[in-house]
Design a protein that fits this description.
- This protein has helices spanning 21-31, 35-45, 49-56.
- Helix 2 (35-45) packs across helix 3.
- The protein has a domain at 21-56.
- It is an all-alpha fold and 58 residues long.
- It contains 3 helices and no strands.
Length: 58
């Protein structure tokens, strides 16, 4: 199934998909970090939003 590019929010609000550019933009803005820092965080702790927030100290 193709992604719906008109979506403004992630389909799963508990996970971050850094392979989707719009989701990377959404989460980096929401968490107040650079896209690169978000990629590093997801690489370190996985895609779960709560884990990423903990890693980033948010």
């Amino acid at each position: 199934m193709a992604d719906d590019l008109s979506r403004k929010r992630p389909e799963d609000s508990n996970k971050i998909n850094v392979n989707q550019s719009w989701e990377l933009n959404y989460w980096s803005t929401k968490l107040g970090v650079s896209k690169e820092m978000l990629r590093i965080a997801v690489s370190a702790v996985g895609p779960l939003v709560l884990d990423v927030k903990r890693y980033l100290g948010r």
